[in-house]
Amino acid sequence: VPPKVIMACVKDFEDYAYKYLPKSALDYYISGSNDEQTVNDNIKAFKRYKIRPRILRDVSNIDTSTTILGYKISFPVCIAPTAMHGLAHDEREIGTCKGAFRAGTAYTLSTIANSSIEEIAESNPNALKFYQLYIFKKDKSVTEELVRRAEEAGYKALFLTVDSPFFGKRIADEKNNFKTPAHLKMANFESLKGYSRDGVSKNSGSGSGLGEYSRRLFSSSVTWQDVIWLKNFTKLPLVLKGILTAEEARKAVEIGVSAIVVSNHGGRQLDGVPASIDALREVVKAVQGSNVEVYLDGGVRLGTDVFKAIALGAKAVFIGRPALFGLAYDGAAGVEKLLNILKEEFNTSMALAGCRNVRELQTEESLVVHESYYSRL
Amino acid sequence: VPPKVIMACVKDFEDYAYKYLPKSALDYYISGSNDEQTVNDNIKAFKRYKIRPRILRDVSNIDTSTTILGYKISFPVCIAPTAMHGLAHDEREIGTCKGAFRAGTAYTLSTIANSSIEEIAESNPNALKFYQLYIFKKDKSVTEELVRRAEEAGYKALFLTVDSPFFGKRIADEKNNFKTPAHLKMANFESLKGYSRDGVSKNSGSGSGLGEYSRRLFSSSVTWQDVIWLKNFTKLPLVLKGILTAEEARKAVEIGVSAIVVSNHGGRQLDGVPASIDALREVVKAVQGSNVEVYLDGGVRLGTDVFKAIALGAKAVFIGRPALFGLAYDGAAGVEKLLNILKEEFNTSMALAGCRNVRELQTEESLVVHESYYSRL
Amino acid sequence: VPPKVIMACVKDFEDYAYKYLPKSALDYYISGSNDEQTVNDNIKAFKRYKIRPRILRDVSNIDTSTTILGYKISFPVCIAPTAMHGLAHDEREIGTCKGAFRAGTAYTLSTIANSSIEEIAESNPNALKFYQLYIFKKDKSVTEELVRRAEEAGYKALFLTVDSPFFGKRIADEKNNFKTPAHLKMANFESLKGYSRDGVSKNSGSGSGLGEYSRRLFSSSVTWQDVIWLKNFTKLPLVLKGILTAEEARKAVEIGVSAIVVSNHGGRQLDGVPASIDALREVVKAVQGSNVEVYLDGGVRLGTDVFKAIALGAKAVFIGRPALFGLAYDGAAGVEKLLNILKEEFNTSMALAGCRNVRELQTEESLVVHESYYSRL
Amino acid sequence: VPPKVIMACVKDFEDYAYKYLPKSALDYYISGSNDEQTVNDNIKAFKRYKIRPRILRDVSNIDTSTTILGYKISFPVCIAPTAMHGLAHDEREIGTCKGAFRAGTAYTLSTIANSSIEEIAESNPNALKFYQLYIFKKDKSVTEELVRRAEEAGYKALFLTVDSPFFGKRIADEKNNFKTPAHLKMANFESLKGYSRDGVSKNSGSGSGLGEYSRRLFSSSVTWQDVIWLKNFTKLPLVLKGILTAEEARKAVEIGVSAIVVSNHGGRQLDGVPASIDALREVVKAVQGSNVEVYLDGGVRLGTDVFKAIALGAKAVFIGRPALFGLAYDGAAGVEKLLNILKEEFNTSMALAGCRNVRELQTEESLVVHESYYSRL
Ligand SMILES: Cc1cc2nc3c(=O)[nH]c(=O)nc-3n(C[C@H](O)[C@H](O)[C@H](O)COP(=O)(O)O)c2cc1C
Ligand SMILES: Cc1cc2nc3c(=O)[nH]c(=O)nc-3n(C[C@H](O)[C@H](O)[C@H](O)COP(=O)(O)O)c2cc1C
Ligand SMILES: Cc1cc2nc3c(=O)[nH]c(=O)nc-3n(C[C@H](O)[C@H](O)[C@H](O)COP(=O)(O)O)c2cc1C
Ligand SMILES: Cc1cc2nc3c(=O)[nH]c(=O)nc-3n(C[C@H](O)[C@H](O)[C@H](O)COP(=O)(O)O)c2cc1C
After folding, report:
1. Would you call D6 and B243 a contact, using CB atoms and an 8 Å cutoff?
2. What is the 3-state secondary structure (H, E, C) of A17-38?
């Protein structure tokens, strides 16, 4: 068992994962697609935004809490849906969900998981859980079944991922000939022949098993019509994950979704798209006046990243890889620890910027500006 | 024989070539001129453009095909004319042409080749072939002969390279005292004394043999008048290769050429000119309203590079060095493999950006923007 | 005793400190908070400003002197308040103050010091001394006592630090489990149980002792009302240290403070705020018309940094870390030496820019411009 | 004797000098002042400008020649005045002048030289020679004597250096305790006690001998009045070297100088001023309409650097360090070789940009643009 060293920031968890995860798991987690322009820019882009702090306010009581889709969370950082937590820790998705719950925030389960919808719900009955949906090929029965199961298991929203008609090419996975280890299952598909683990482990012998799986099974013909159908089909609020432009955001508002996640899928789908924090502003402007909530994921690693996203108009942010690193470090406890570090950092950044609650972040004028602000003066 | 490792992207072919090509051949292929500002910027510049993807469209059927000069190609990537394929592989230009044909796209033969116009045509009768022309000194007979031979051999267009009154200085070639190996011939000039291989191998003993050759034999007095003459002389559509400004593009439209290649010759001629993707936009704007097609070459290495160039107004792009790396890897099969990887990457980028055919790339508003778009918001 | 090598610039003192200070002391001095974006940008930002020199003026007599709050100083560089000089040299704050005095400039004592208000005053009766205040929790008695003691000891101004309701997170300190060594005391609090050294050395066993101390003892509820109270309570001119925006600067002017320090606490508080030289200009513009003086600290390492700050509207600048490096090098003599090097560099930059006195720096048109000036031409 | 390797570009001479010059000589030559921001930016700035080439012009006859102050030179690159050529090669300034003459261009002699005004003139009677003046302290007799000697020896212009009331601080020289070796003299001052070599070799024991020399002997009170006096005193055209702003350029035009050198003294005087190519444009604009010629020096290393400067309005450029590297490589022959390489590069860049003579460079619209041109499209 590797030693548990002092953890002071998200980077420490990342370093830990780099050191102790098996190469093919680590590569699967960290890779972006193709040239990795976007995955790298996601991180760097945050540094291009500057905080203009307010001072001399009573910040002895900072309230980091906010709501997401009406549900209270302890701070505006939730867990993004990521596949295959079994590669990080035996506690799998169950552990991640538990960590999020203990830290007072929401967890989003990916369709591609090593724990099932029901397992997670049973182990974490009181956790705030969302369900992320990929739409599968052929008739709609698979989708319908997944949605109903999520509803019944008490998940509170459906996140439809709209940037993935199939998976982007991640070079390392191709070279590692990535497939799921024998002991891990596609937990949501145990009964569904062809959709199960076999679908991932039995690949054509070269390239990424998951890439192949997505191309064989995901529907790549999903349209706005299907979204309308889904919205009517489910009782749950519908969230579109993976919007990067004002044009598409406006359409989402039109058809009445509950929320949008500005996301480039952690730089794993279309490489060369803008960093999410860069894309955020045009989306926020586009939905103004509606009551559609805007979230962001991609590159959030610091309390100040959270601060910047919220100040630029996001209602909450999601973390993908950091949660996996937390899980790898120490299961549920690791996820909780990481979230609490982020919460404390966010709290500190609020206090030091003179913002006592999340509302103030959202209403202060020019609290966060693009660095070009300073070259235009 | 070096091992054929997993090839997942163009970079893998480049790495292979760096490892296995003899130094002087590799240097000849990769060098830019002088300080290599432009050859490096060609690559970096693509990363300054960002894709703004469309979502929720039925992308189950992506059609990557398009036309070039009216001829159908499987995707908008053709082979740029590059000299001396014999340095890469015994199959020489014949192999490159075959690889392009198998991948469903066009091949452009350089005047400076180790296979002749006729050899290539005979081995690849059904391939879509273009012929690239350098104009030689003295009377026009050499030029006339080359043009007629290309016409008769079934080449479908003449690419006149307009950025090379003689070759730029490539430092590595100077230091390597570069000359063509004894077993390679200047295949198009076997009968023409002085223009043949001897012209390249017998240099003054220092510097680049090819540089010297070009200064001794190329005409550096070609003008727009000569282009008009050539246009009238040949039955083939005339394409000007090497335009980087709106001013010159407008002149090309005026005299009625069929197409323009925005190109800086892979950074091998005038160093310090803009990256081709940077220059593309002013050229596209300048020809608007005419039916002159605009192509681009220089720095294309990724499916998203192709995507960006097409979205910014190019009808097709050409690859120079990548084709040489493909050839070095495995002859015709290597070229085909590389092209198919690029095609698949382009296909993926279209799907993930919600574009079902090339026409949509060309008509979507602000599909690709310069990164400064995000600092101006 | 480490050798005293040739010292030609501030960087040389920094190199010396890096080599000879114990790791935990060095880390404490050099760290910025969190990701260290701001501490690094403080340095880099100065290089983004360019001096447009005047020529052919009689610069045989350069007068670098200026005033701060009406007091004459030999050049516009003073010592910023920094904690714990005992970690650098046995002469502690007494040495730093002496060095500043000998170089003809002002010294600012931090509340968190290893020499007391009175000790320093007794050893340096004629030095120009300012006192920096942190406001402590509970009733105002601690604050009142500190202010009265500073007044009585002959300090000439109160610097209220407004960016620190508690300390930022400095990762290295967390990992070093930083605490004050046994032989060093919190000299201003010897009588005050809980505020003394014990408060810092007895931490919860993990993390930074000073971080914890600040959270336990500093008041984080200080507001503009308290500033007004303080202004009325003290006979001394009141300076607000840690303003980065026009909005807050205008408020400071309104309530009638004497001066403002544009500062991000050397990148140790809120990470991700602008470099101080970037923030300077909007603050200068905001106070225009008032008689509030504007100072700057953060990243000043060169005579030209001083020049740029003054030309952009600062009345004086302060140095934090450099003074600590000077002290580490050779006590008071080291501080004096370092200040004299900076003075000579500033003198030189004035002469070479054709400015004979500080007034000219402040009045010449466009003497210093942002680098973007040259891309807009 | 070190081997004479293949020399293909200026960088090769630089590499040679780095390898074979004694450290203190090399340091003296290459250093910039202080933080070396400007000396580095001089080089990098050229890469920020892009050439927009013209094509299809008859470039079989390129005329690189131009005039400077009415004198014909073979191409617009002259030798800038630099001190102490004896550190590079036994041929000293005599060799440098000879190299320039053989390459068909002008040589500028520094006041601080190891060969005298007369020696150089006698060895190079037909060379086009300019004389660079520093004005010395006390009465004007030293200056008057130097000017008369230059006139009599056939120098064709006076370059008054206006950026050096004394020398900037070059850290390496300080640390090397730089002084002139015993065998080298201050050749122009053999009769003048105190101004001679002794003045440089006998320094206070620390720091740069030359820095001290300049502070002790140069006049730092030279003003525009003195320039007017000098203009009237000499029969020679007067050139001001070291102007970086439109304001000062306009004054130079007013008092009727013949030419201006946009120069930051190779980054050796005031650090933090703009790169010379950045400053060029505002100076060119400021003198428009007058017949004052504008030159540039600083960072010219490539034929395309020359091209860019001329296209942006310079009548000629000067090289400082490259000439020293050429001299170090092989005396006069090395200087000639280096100049011929630059000439050939310039010739090539003209041909490849479609410019047949220098006049065309100066009149073509937008031939060279700042890189920001491409982000504004
Ligand atoms: C290993 C991994 C697996 C992922 N799996 C999914 C998934 O199954 N469904 C989905 O919508 N997004 C998936 N994502 C994208 C995340 O939801 C999220 O957009 C991204 O990780 C955010 O970027 P970050 O990792 O920089 O925080 C995955 C991301 C990673 C890194
Ligand atoms: C080794 C090499 C040889 C070339 N030879 C020719 C040639 O003979 N004729 C020509 O018009 N362009 C020639 N080019 C330029 C290419 O047609 C093309 O403009 C360039 O390679 C595109 O850049 P890329 O290599 O980054 O794709 C050559 C380029 C290379 C790299
Ligand atoms: C080690 C250290 C301790 C500091 N302690 C204090 C302090 O006690 N009070 C305060 O107002 N600022 C403090 N500062 C901030 C400085 O006053 C000043 O803002 C900063 O050091 C300026 O940046 P510079 O170090 O780049 O010059 C401290 C800074 C450092 C580096
Ligand atoms: C070693 C050295 C000595 C110099 N000496 C003088 C000098 O005596 N007089 C002068 O006006 N400029 C002097 N200069 C500045 C040059 O004239 C010129 O401005 C500068 O070298 C141009 O930059 P470059 O070296 O990048 O070409 C000197 C420069 C160097 C590098």
Report:
1. no
2. HHHHCCHHHHHHHHCCCCCCHH
Q: B1 falls in which pLDDT band (50, 70, 90)?
A: low
Q: Is C74 helix (H, G, I), strand (E, B) or coil?
A: coil
Answer whether D270 sits within 8 Å of C60, measured CB to CB. no
C325 CA to centre of ligand 3 in angstroms: 13
Alpha carbon of C301 to ligand 3 centroid (Å): 14
What is residue C209's predicted lDDT score, i.e. its pLDDT? 86
* Cα atoms in the Cβ-side hemisphere of radius 13 Å centred on A157: 25
Give A279-335 pLDDT, tens digit per residue: 999 999 999 999 999 999 999 999 999 999 999 999 999 999 999 999 999 999 999
Alpha helix (H) residue ranges in chain C: 10-20, 23-30, 37-46, 92-102, 117-123, 141-152, 171-176, 197-201, 209-217, 224-233, 246-254, 276-287, 303-311, 321-352, 358-363, 372-376
Scanning every residue of chain C, which has its alpha carbon at the shortest distance from the alpha carbon of A342? Answer: C34
Structure tokens at D111: 């006041």
Q: Which amino acid is it at C183?
A: H
Strand-pair partners of C140: none
Q: Annotated catalytic residue: which of D85, D89, D183, D265?
A: D265
Classify residue A48 by its DSSP letter: T
Between CA B146 and CA B134 the distance in angstroms is 10
- pLDDT(C326) > 60: yes
Question: C79 CB contacts (<8 Å, ≥6 apart)?
Answer: C96, C97, C100, C105, C106, C107, C108, C318, C319, C323, C335
Q: Which chains border B (3 or more CB–CB pairs < 8 Å)? A: A, D
Contact flag D34-C377 (C-beta cutoff 8 Å): no
Say what the pLDDT of residue D140 is. Answer: 85
Q: What would the mean pLDDT of A252-276 be, rounded to a whole number?
A: 98
b/e map B239-254, b = 16+ CB within 10 Å: bbbbbbbbbbbebbbe
| Nearest Cα residue to atom 4 of ligand 4 | D82
Report d(CA A353, CA A343) in Å as an integer. Answer: 15
pLDDT score, position C1: 63
Give the residue whose CA is nearest to atom 13 of ligand 4: D82
Q: Do chains B and A touch (3 or more CB pairs under 8 A)?
A: yes
Q: Spell out the alpha helix ranges (H) of chain A.
A: 10-20, 23-30, 37-46, 92-102, 117-123, 141-152, 171-176, 197-201, 209-217, 224-233, 246-255, 276-287, 303-311, 321-352, 358-363, 373-376
Nearest to D272 among C50, C375, C376 (CB): C50
- Residue C29 CA: nearest ligand 3 atom is 1
Is residue D160 within a helix (H) or strand (E), and if so which, with residue range?
A: strand D158-161
**How long a stretch of residues is chain A?**
377
Find tokens 């300077």 and name the residue. Answer: C280
Nearest protein Cα to ligand 3, atom 7: C82
Distance C207 CA to ligand 3 centre (A): 20
Q: What are the residues facing D238 on neighbouring strands?
A: D158
- A27 with A37: CB under 8 angstroms? no
Which residues does a 6 A CB cutoff place in the pocket of ligand 4? D 28-29, 42, 80-83, 110, 112, 132, 161, 241, 263, 265-266, 268, 297-300, 319-321
Give the number of C-D residue pairs with CB atoms closer than 8 Å. Answer: 107
- pLDDT, one tens digit per residue, over B113-164 is 999 999 999 999 999 999 999 999 877 889 999 999 999 999 999 999 999 9
To the question of pTM greater than 0.80 for the whole model, the response is: yes
Band (pLDDT 50/70/90 cuts) for residue D199 is low
- Looking at residue D105, what is its pLDDT? 98
When pLDDT is averaged across residues C253-260 and rounded to a whole number, the result is 98
Q: Is A265 a catalytic residue?
A: yes
Tell me which chains share at least 3 CB pairs under 8 Å with chain D: B, C
